[in-house]
Write a structure and sequence with these properties.
The protein is of the alpha+beta class. The chain contains four helices and seven strands. Strand 1 and strand 2 form a beta hairpin.
Length: 186
Amino acid sequence: MEQKGTSKVATVSSVGEWKSDSGVLYYKFLYEFEDGTKLTARHIKNSPKFNTGEEAEYEIIKTTQYGNMGKVSKVGGYNPSGGRAYKGRQQSWSESMSITRDACFGAACDYYAKLGGADVKTITALADRFVKFVIHGTPEKDFEMWGAEHKNLIHRNSVIKNVVKVADSEDDCLRYAMESIKYINQ
């Protein structure tokens, strides 16, 4: 029953709260659009994402006895709440590398912590090996957030952080990481 569209907000009003099974509190807002569409959307913040007169994209996810339930976002896919819907965001190569170096340094610290510690030079040498694994074959460019190449970096960072928990040597860390990536990409 998914229905998507773009229209200006005619009215928006708060219609209560909803608590998820995990305990997250959401605030519900009823949006009425100039094209006649009505839907209730849940937001983390207690304020509507769009006000009367602003153009928004909407998506009806389901219809219940209480009406249409869905989501609203800025025209073009940007979600003002900062959620995953902001498809157009670019992350620079420098930002990606800073995040990668941080994750790999943390993984190297975790690896040596389980062995009783190491000096910074030893830790950074392993972190450098991890960085080379993570960025292997990835072109130096700015990434569309959640695009395939960016997801690949995220997966490789995550794998490195996990394999250090079980590997018995530096080489095993990288060997396990490569096997893990093959498993993930099946």
